[in-house]
């Protein structure tokens, strides 16, 4: 044949998500509507076990499918605007040339030890993920990770993975994560942060696999850039960088650049303090980054007009992915309005009870993983599923601690690949990486993590982790 067969084109990211919205709407005509009773416990709304009942169906109509998109935008507004504002702040920081100058100096200093950047960076972010549940908050570090990776000869996937998969490894391990393990253990009525030792051992395996996976990919890309899953994007980025260097040369690290870095790191430390001491979340963090960006711009030598031009440019770069968060949230809006989420959770829990005892715990992991697609909030998933899984684990003779482990791994692992994950979409938005390219890169690691989780759960049952 003189002509090669055309490959089936990969669907656009928005097309994939909109297809799921349509499927969710169709499901409201097939899946019976139902709800659990809920009650307030220590300020949290939790599901009352055994209270599920069918209710009047509310199938989603044609126009309501499209209404779900702006409703999803509204529901995810805090995350969407956080991404936009942080993108703007980093646009200003980038305009000062502090990052380029700092990276150039760092790479020169590291010399042949540059490969250490990946494990060190991933370890640091894993600790933040394991102790403070860092997820969306680490989005702001992605541009720095990408800039460092490209300077060394890697690609944007490597830079994004250094940050996101480091944080994800710690989030999955969750030894001291108050937003997932802490809430789930509270609902399951087991001592908060108990089982630390076993979780820590599993965390080491999860992190080690992630580091190996990212380093292996990074070496391959550095040796042969065309093997990058975003090779075309990297070519364009490299050309833009070369043009910038031709125009202005590599910036020398100056006192102004040092001051910009001091402002950034001082601001980050202040943010961590705000999260722990004042309960800060996305709104407060976004406000803080606006301040960091504006001060950095002025100190970095930009005029007021240049500061806000750079701010707008930064927001433009993340627009594609920021709005995906709203599209993804539309899936949940459709299922909530159609009153079928509780039905799906109840059905999945019922299926587990019919499984042989040796695979019950794997069934619990599967339920939590599927539920995470619909309820990607870790605390929200804990509040929804743990009141069901706790009595179910008692009935099946499985220790409640293991039920928490199944929730923890089901929630944490799939966050790195599902399109409804706000943090993942935020990472990709800032990095400019299409969702389908990320899936091509990450799926083998996610599969490996799930295999580890299954082994960890089976071993936990055999040794009686409590």
UniProtKB/TrEMBL annotation:
Keywords: Cell membrane, Membrane, Transmembrane, Transmembrane helix
Spans traversing the lipid bilayer: 12-31, 73-93, 114-132, 138-157, 164-184, 196-215, 258-280, 286-305, 317-335, 417-435, 442-465
Primary localization: membrane
Topology in the lipid bilayer: Multi-pass membrane protein
One cellular component term from this protein's GO annotations in UniProt: plasma membrane
Subcellular localization(s) per the UniProt record: Cell membrane
Keyword Isomerase attached: no
InterPro entries: C4_dicarb_anaerob_car-like, DASS-Related_Transporters
Pfam families reported in the protein's UniProt record: DcuC
Protein's name in the database: Putative basic amino acid antiporter YfcC
Species of provenance: Jeotgalibacillus proteolyticus
């Amino acid at each position: 044949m003189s002509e090669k067969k055309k490959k089936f084109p990969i669907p656009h990211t928005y097309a994939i998500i909109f297809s799921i919205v349509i499927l969710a709407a169709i499901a409201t005509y097939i899946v019976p509507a139902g709800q659990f009773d809920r009650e307030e416990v220590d300020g949290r709304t939790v599901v009352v076990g055994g209270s599920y009942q069918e209710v009047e169906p509310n199938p989603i109509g044609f126009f309501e499918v499209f209404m779900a998109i702006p409703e999803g935008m509204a529901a995810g507004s805090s995350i969407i605007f956080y991404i936009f504002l942080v993108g703007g702040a980093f646009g200003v920081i980038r305009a000062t040339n502090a990052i380029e100058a700092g990276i150039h100096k760092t790479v020169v200093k590291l010399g042949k030890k540059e490969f250490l950047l990946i494990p060190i960076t991933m370890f640091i972010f894993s600790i933040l993920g394991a102790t403070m549940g860092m997820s969306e908050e680490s989005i702001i570090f992605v541009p720095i990770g990408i800039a460092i990776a490209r300077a060394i000869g890697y690609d944007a996937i490597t830079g994004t993975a250094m940050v996101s998969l480091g944080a994800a490894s710690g989030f999955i391990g969750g030894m001291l994560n108050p937003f997932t393990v802490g809430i789930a253990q509270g609902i399951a009525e087991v001592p908060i942060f108990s089982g630390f030792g076993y979780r820590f051992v599993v965390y080491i395996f999860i992190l080690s696999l992630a580091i190996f996976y990212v380093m292996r990919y990074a070496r391959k890309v550095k040796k042969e850039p065309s093997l990058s899953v975003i090779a075309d994007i990297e070519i364009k980025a490299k050309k833009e960088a070369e043009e910038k260097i031709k125009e202005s040369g590599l910036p020398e690290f100056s006192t102004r650049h040092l001051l910009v870095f001091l402002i950034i790191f001082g601001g980050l430390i202040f943010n961590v303090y705000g999260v722990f001491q004042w309960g800060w979340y996305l709104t407060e963090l976004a406000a803080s980054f606006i301040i960091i960006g504006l001060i950095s711009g002025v100190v970095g030598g930009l005029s007021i007009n240049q500061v806000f031009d750079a701010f707008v440019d930064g927001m433009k770069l993340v627009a594609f992915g920021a709005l995906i968060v709203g599209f993804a949230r539309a899936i949940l809006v459709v299922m909530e309005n159609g009153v079928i989420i509780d039905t799906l959770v109840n059905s999945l829990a019922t299926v587990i009870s019919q499984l042989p005892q040796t695979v019950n715990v794997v069934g619990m992991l599967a339920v939590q993983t599927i539920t995470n697609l619909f309820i990607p909030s870790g605390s929200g998933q804990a509040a929804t599923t743990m009141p069901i899984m706790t009595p179910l684990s008692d009935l099946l003779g499985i220790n409640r601690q293991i039920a928490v482990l199944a929730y923890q791994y089901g929630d944490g692992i799939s966050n790195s690949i599902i399109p409804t994950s706000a943090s993942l979409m935020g990472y990709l938005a800032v990095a400019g990486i299409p969702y389908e390219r990320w899936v091509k890169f990450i799926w083998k690691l996610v599969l490996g993590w799930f295999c580890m989780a299954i082994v960890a759960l089976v071993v936990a049952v055999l040794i009686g982790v409590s």
